[in-house]
Amino acid sequence: MKRKTLLSAVIATAMLAAALPGALPAVAAPDPDNWQKVLEEADGQTVYWNAWGGDARTNRYIAWVAEQMQADFGVEVEHVKLDDTSSAVARVLGEKQAGNDDEGSIDLIWINGENFAAMREQDLLFGPFADALPHFALTDPDNNPEVVTDFTLPTDGYESPWGKAQITFYYDSAQVDAPPQSIDALLAWAKQNPGQFSYPRIPDFTGSTFLKQALIELSDQDAALYQPVEDSDFAEITAPLWAYLDELHPHLWRSGRSFPDSGPNLRTLMSDGELSLAFSFYPTDAAVAVMEYELPPSVRSYVLEDGTLGNVHFVAIPYNSPHKAGAMALANFLLSPEAQAQKQSLDMWGDRSVLAIGQLDDSDQAMFEQGEQHPSALPVDALSNTLAEPHPSWMTALQDTWLERYGVN
Amino acid sequence: MNDAATESLTLEKVCIRLAGQALLQVNTRIAPGEVLTVMGPSGSGKSTLLAFVAGFLDSAFDAQGQVRLGEQNLLALPAEQRGIGLLFQDPLLFPHLSVAGNLRFGLPRHAPDKHRQIAQALEQVGLAGFENRDPATLSGGQQARVALMRLLLSQPRAVLLDEPFSKLDTALRQEMRALVFGQLREAGLPTLLVTHDEADAAAAGGPIIALG
Amino acid sequence: MLRYVPVLMIALLVIPVTAGLGMVLLPAFGYLPVLGGEQLSLAPWQALFSQPGLWRSVAVSFSSGLASTALALLVVVLFLAASQGTLLDRSLRRLVSPLLAIPHAAVAFGFAFLIAPSGLMARLISPWPSGWQSPPDALIVNDPWGLALTFGLVLKEAPFLLLMSLAALPQLQADKRLQLARSLGYAPTIAWLKVILPALYPLIRLPVYAVIAYATSVVDMALILGPRLPSTLSVSILGWFNDPDITRRFMASAAAVLQLGVTLAALISWWLLEQLVRRFSRHWLTNGSRRRGAATLTVAGRGGLALTSLTALAALLGLALFSVAGFWRFPEFLPQSLVLDHWQRSAAMLAAPLVTTGVIALVATGLATLLVVAALENEQRQHLHPRRALWLLYLPLLVPQIAFLFGLVVAAEQIGVRPQLLLVVAGHALFVLPYVYLSLGESYRRLDPRWLQVAQSLGISRNRAFWKVRLPLLLAPLLTAVAVGLAVSIGQYLPTQLLGAGRVTTVTTEAVALASGGNRRLIGVWALVQAGLPLIGFIIALALPRWLGVTQRESNR
C-alpha cells in the first residue's frame, strides 16, 4: 500500500509540474526614456543573457559583469551559453510560433549582422531602446556611424553596441619570415607553402567573413556590395572571387578537400602545427592564446596592407522578453567606461571598446591605459584601416554559391 | 553404428581438492562397454568428477592424478578433443535447430550420407520421420532420446552421464535406462555414470563407487 | 493503480515523440503560419533536394550507421566467442562497463586527437622513425566517407552491445550448451558461434536496432569526427534549424523527416541482412565443421575488443594530458610543461552545472526506475508477456532525436509549457526509461518465482514480499540499471539545450558550448568531468551490493 501512495504522489507531482504554465503574467514593456523607472523595475529581475559560450575569457568577463550588476543594480544576470547564436534566434521564433508573446526565455542576446537582420525582418526584437541608454552617448554615434549601423543596415535603436572586431592575421614568426600582405599575395604565399593555410568551412561566420574580405579586395571595394545583392549582377561582381578560390583551394590545408569547422578551430590547427598562417575576427586572439599556452610566444599579429573587414557587435532584446528593464540596465552597464575598460583588458578578455575614448573624462580614459603591449598582440595603431561590412544579403548569396561550388568534394 | 571401441577409460589416483580440502579420491578403470556408477549425496563432488574428466573443471579446484583413454593422456587435451560425450539431466536440444539439425550438429563433418544416418538413428529410438520437428514440440522422453542419438552420432570414445534420468517420470525412466545402457554397451563405450538413485546403479549393472 | 502503470509509461514515451514528429511534419509540407506558411506545399522538399551534396550526406549517414553497428556487433560477438573466462578476458570485460559511461562527445574528442595527423599516434612515431617535423597533410579525421566517424562510433557501441549481451546470456544456459557442444568435439569458439549466438541474437536485437537508429542520426560525434563537405545529414539538419535565415526551417523540417526515412531505411536494410545471414548460415550451423578457423577467430575476438578498449582509453589519456598541458607542439609526445591553470580556472565554473547535472540525472533516473519497476512488477503479478507493447517503449530510441525534438519544443510551447528544469527532467526520462527497462527487464523476469512463493507461504503479503525479498535479491541489477540511467541522462545534450532553452546548464551543455571555442585544454577538463560523473555511478553500483552483502551475511552469523 505504501508503495502505491508513493508512486501516485510522484506521478501526480510530475503531472502537476508538466501542466504548470511558464511563470507570472506579463507586464507592460518599460519606457526606456524614463530611466529612473527602468532601474526601479530592473531591481530584483533575473536577466537571461544568451551569448556564445565557446570562449572561457568571454565567459569570465560575463561572470564579472554579473557580479557588478547584482551589487550595483540588484539585477541577477544568468549567462546562457550558446554554441551557436542562431539557435537563440530560432528559439525566439519558435516561441512566437507558439503564441508566447510575453514570457520568452531570452532577455538579452549577443548578436550582429545576419542574425540581427533576420530578427528585425521577422519582428522579433524590442525597441527602439538603445538611444535612450544613458551611456550610449559615450560612443559618439554622430561621428562613429559603425555603432548605429550593422552590416549596412541602420540599427534604429534595436540593438546596443558592445564591442569591436576586425579580421586579424597571425603567423608563427619562427617559421614564417614574410607573411602575405594582401589577398593576392596570400595566393602566391599559399602556392609556396602548400597546406599551411585554410579558412573555416562556409557557412561559418569567420569563414564567410574571409570570403567578404577577399571579395572586397578583388572587386576594388565595389559600391554594389553595400546595396542589397538583388540590385546588382552577382555573377559578374563575384567572378574574380570564384576564379581566385578555384586557384587557391588546391594549395590549402588538406588540399581544400576539407575545411576547419570554425574560427577557433583554425587556432587549434595552428597550435598543432598543422597551419602556419591563420586569422581571427578578434584582434587579441593570438595574444590570448599565447597566454593560455595554446600558441608559441613567437606568434605575431598583423592586418593586411589595404585594411581588413571590421564590424561592431551588439546586444539586443527579444520582443517577448519578460525582463526588458533588467536587460536595458545591463545593456547600459555594458557601455559604461568601467565595463568597457575591463573588457578591453588583455587579462580579462581583450575585446576592443566601442566608446569614443578620446572624449571621456581623464579619469575614465586612464582606465583604458594598459601596461606593456603583448608582443603577440596587434599594435594599437594597426587597426585604423577598417573595411566596412557589405549588406547582409551578400553574405547569404556568397554562402549559397560557395556551397554549390565547393560544398561537395 | 560406429565400430565398437576397444579402449578403456582409466582414472588413476585422481584427487580433487577445494581450498586445500580433499573433496574426492578415485582410482579405477572402466572397460569398454562397462558402466561405472559413482554414487553419493549432493555436494559429494560427483559432478566435479565429471567436469574434471570432461575438461570443464573450474579453476577454483585443484586436481591431481591421471585420466587416460586407452594409452592417451586426456588431461593434456582441451575438452573438445577428448572424445568424451556428455548426457545431462536436461536434454539440451538446441532450440534454434530442428531435430535433424541437432543430430547433424553431432555428426562429424565429413560423415558419409548424413541424411540416411540421421533417419536411421531416429528410427532406432522410435522417432522415424521426426527430422523437421522443432525440439520444443517434443515430449521429455522424446527429447532425451534425440539427445542420446546426437551423442552417439558424434562417435565419442567414452561417455559421461550426469544423472541423466532424474527428470523423467518413473515409467519413462525404466525405458530410457534400458535404451541408454543398451546402446552404450552395444557401442562398446566405457561409461561413467553419476547418480544418487540406487535403481540407476542397478540398471547399469557395473561396479559402483560410493562418495561422501 | 499498478495495472495502469504500463499504459501510463507508454503514453509518457509515445505522446511526446508523436507530438514532436507532428510539429515537424507540418512545416515539412509548408505549414507554419507564423512564418507565413499557411498552405500545404512541396516547396520545402524542392528546396531540400536542391541542396548540394544532399545525397552524399544521406549516403554517409546511412553507411556509417550500418557499418559501425556491424563492426561493433562483430567485435562483441567474436570476443564473447573467444572469451573463456581467463584473467585477460575478465579484465577486458571489467574495462568495458566504465567505457559505456563516457559520453560520446568526450570519446570523439579524444579519438580525434589520437588519430589526427598531429595527434598522439603520429607524435609517437615522430620525428623518428617517420621523419615528420610537422604533421603530414592527410585527411584522416573528417574524411569524406565517414570512416573516422564509423570507428569512433564503434568505440561507444561495442561496450553497449557487450553489456546487453552479458545481461542476456545467463538465460540461455550458455555454459551447459557450450559444454555439450565441446563434448561433441567442437572447438570453443566455433561451439559458441553455432549454439549460443543463434539464441543470443534475438535477445539483443532491440539494442542493436537502437544502436543503428542512434548511429545513423548522431549529432555530437558527427560534428567532431564526421565529414564536412558535406557533413552528415543530422549535422546539416542542425545547421538548417539554427540558420539565421528563419525561412530555412521549412527545409530543415523536411530534412528531419528525411532523416527519419534514412534511419528507417537503415533498419530495414539491417533486417534484410539478418534474413540473408540466417539463410546462408543454416548450412554452416549443421555441417559438422568443428574447428575450422577457430584459432583465427579466437585471436580476432580478443584482439578486436582489446583494440577497441585500448583505443578508447588512449583517447581519454590524451584528453587528460591536454587538461594539464602547458605549451605542447608537434612532434613532442608529451607537453613541455604541466600546469594546473586549466583546472583552476574551470573549478569556479564547475560547481553550479555539476549540481544541476546531478539533480536532473537523479530525478529523471529515479522517476524512470520507479515506473519500470512498477511495470515489471505488474507484469509478474498479471503473468503478462508484453511483447508487442515493448516496441513502443523503445520508440524514443528508434526515432532520431533530431527528427522530433525541435517539434517537441514547439508542441510544448503550444500547450503553454515553458522550457524549464522540469521539462528537461521529463525529456531526460524519455531517453533514460527505455535504457533502464532494457537493463533491468531480463533480471527481473528471470528471478526464480519460488523465492516469492516461499516468502508468501511464510505468511508475508505480496507487497511486503516485494520489499523484503524481491528488491534485495535484485539489488545488483537494479543498481546497474540506475547507473546506466544516470549515464544516459548525464550524456544528453540536445534535449537539455532545447527543452531548457539553454537556461539549464549541465556539465554536458557546458562542455559542448566550450567545445565550439576549440580550446582543447578546456575541453579536456570538461570532458574528464563529464566522463567522471557517470563513472562514480558505476562504481557505486558495483560496490554497494558487495558491501551490503558482506554486512548482511555478517549480521546473520
Automatic annotation (TrEMBL), chain A:
Highest taxon of the lineage: Bacteria
SUPFAM superfamilies (alphabetical): Periplasmic binding protein-like II
InterPro entries: SBP, YnjB
Signal recorded as keyword: yes
A Pfam family the protein falls into: SBP_bac_8
Membrane-crossing segments per the record: none
Signal sequence interval, chain numbering: 1-28
Swiss-Prot/TrEMBL keywords: Signal
PANTHER family, per the entry: PROTEIN YNJB (PTHR42779:SF1)
Entry protein name: ABC transporter substrate-binding protein
Naturally occurring in which organism (per UniProt): Vreelandella azerica
UniProtKB/TrEMBL annotation, chain B:
Species of provenance: Vreelandella azerica
UniProt keyword annotations, A-Z: ATP-binding, Nucleotide-binding, Transport
Top-level taxon of origin: Bacteria
Alphabetized PROSITE patterns for the sequence: ABC_TRANSPORTER_2 (PS50893)
Organism phylogeny: Bacteria, Pseudomonadati, Pseudomonadota, Gammaproteobacteria, Oceanospirillales
Protein name per its UniProtKB record: ATP-binding cassette domain-containing protein
A Pfam family it matches: ABC_tran
InterPro entries, per database record: AAA+_ATPase, ABC_SmlMolc_Importer, ABC_transporter-like_ATP-bd, P-loop_NTPase
ABC transporter domain sequence ranges: 6-212
An annotated Gene Ontology molecular function: ATP binding
TrEMBL record, chain C:
A Pfam family: BPD_transp_1
Organism annotation: Vreelandella azerica
UniProt domain ABC transmembrane type-1: residue ranges: 54-269, 350-544
PANTHER family per the UniProt record, alphabetical: INNER MEMBRANE ABC TRANSPORTER PERMEASE PROTEIN YNJC, MOLYBDENUM TRANSPORT SYSTEM PERMEASE PROTEIN MODB
Membrane topology value: Multi-pass membrane protein
UniProt record similarity statement: Belongs to the binding-protein-dependent transport system permease family.
Protein name: ABC transporter permease subunit
GO cellular component, one term: plasma membrane
